[in-house]
# Entry
Amino acid sequence: MCGLSRQVVSHSSGLLTDLTVFGSRDARVALVKIHCKANPVPLTDQEWSTLADLTDGYSGSDISSMVLGALFQPIRDMQAAKYWHVKEGKAIIPQ
# Structure
């Protein structure tokens, strides 16, 4: 984010974001949560903190791509599965 001028952009959620704050830990976590808002993400506070540390230097586009890839991974797993396992009565998961 070095060298960017201070500018405000509108996110599809309606949230106005100042590009100069994407470098902060809280901003990166907030951006991940924005992209995950329609999906339950059961992370602990420690896991959110670790995620913030691991995404240091990521742009908003990097974070968006990372979240989208993570959200679609279960679909890729299902498409590639040859065998399925019934778990806890109703859940069917790929093996």
The chain has one domain: 8-94.
